[in-house]
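INPUT
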Amino acid sequence: MYILIGGGGKVGYYLAEELLQSKHEVVIVERNRNRVRAISDELGECVVEGDCCEVSTLDTAGIARADLAVAVTGDDEDNLVFSEIARRRGADRVIARINNPRNEQLFQRRGLETTVSATHAILAQIEQELPTADVIPLLQLHTGLEIVEVKLPETSPAAGRPVSQLWLPPESLILLVVNPEGMPRIPDDDTRLEAGDALVVVTRKESVERLKQSLVGEIHGLET
Amino acid sequence: MKVIIMGCGRVGARIAGMLDEAGHTVVVMDTNQGAFRRLPPGYGGERYVGNGMDGPALERAGIVDADAFVAVTQGDNRNYFASQMAREVYRIPRVLCRSYDPIRGELFAELGLETFSPTTIGANIVMDWLLDSEQAGR
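OUTPUT
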C-alpha cells in the first residue's frame, strides 16, 4: 500500500518506521527542515519537505495514488485541513489524529469518520479502571456504533430476565455475557441475566444513555 | 445583527469597529489580550480572550445566537477549522473564512465554505492598476 503521512513528529516517525517494516511504501510530509533531516537519516528517503496542508505539496507527494492518508500533526486544524485535501485530491482512505476529543464531532460532521484520539483513549482506559462507572466504553466503530461493557447491579431492571424480555434501544445487541466467575457465553433469547453479570453490548453512540436506563436502571449514587 | 469575529488583527479590528459604529452587536475574539489595542477608540462592542477553535470558548463568546461568524486570524487552517465549527456544529447562518493561500482558499470554497483570499484580491487590484495605467499611457 502507498501511505502518505502528514506530520513528521513522534507519531508520524514511529508510524512510518512500523509501516516501512511491514513493507508499505511510505512518504512523510514535514515542514521543519531539521525534522526532515533527522527522519531521512534514520528511515531513508521517505520524507518530503513541505507544508502538508498545501495542495501542491500533496500533489507532488502523490496524494492521488495514495491508498491511505494519515494526519498526525499536533494541531487538529492542520489534521482537518490535511484530511480534507487528501480526500479531495484522491486518497482512498483517511485516518486523522485528534488531540482535543471535543473536536471529534467536527471531523464526523465533515464525514471524516476514522479518527484516533490519544486523550480519548486514555479517558476510556481511566473509565475502565474506575469501578464506579456503570457503562464503560470499549471501542468506537466508525459507523456511529460503539461497543460498551455494562455491569448489572443488584437493582438492575434486567436482572432475572431472559434476553428476549429486555427492552433495548434500536440497533443494540448483547454480544457477550460474562458471569461473576468470569465465564463468558454468547447469549441467545433464553439466556437469563443475573446481577453481577458483565455484558458486552454494541449500541449506537446516541443510545448509550437509554441502554444504561434499561440495563442499569435509574441513576444511583450521589443523587440518592 | 450579532457578529462574532475571530482574530483581532488589522482586518478583524477594523471590521469590529465598523460594525459597532453601524449599531450591530459585535464580539471580537483573540487568544492574545494585547491584540485588542488595535480596536478603534470608542469601540463599544465586546472583546473576548479565547481560542475560536474551542467549542466552550465560542459558546462563552456567545456564538449560540450569532447571525454571522468571520474568521480572520493569521492561520488559514485555523480559520477553516473555526469556520466549519461555526457552520457545522453551531449552524451559524452566515460564515466567512479568510485564506491567504488562494489554492487552499479555492478548496475551502469547494468544500462549501464561503472563503475569500486577500492574496487574490490584492493581486487583482495591482494587475488592474498596471494594465489600466499601461492603457492610459498609450
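end of record. The CA atoms of residues 79 and 103 of chain B lie 15 Å apart.
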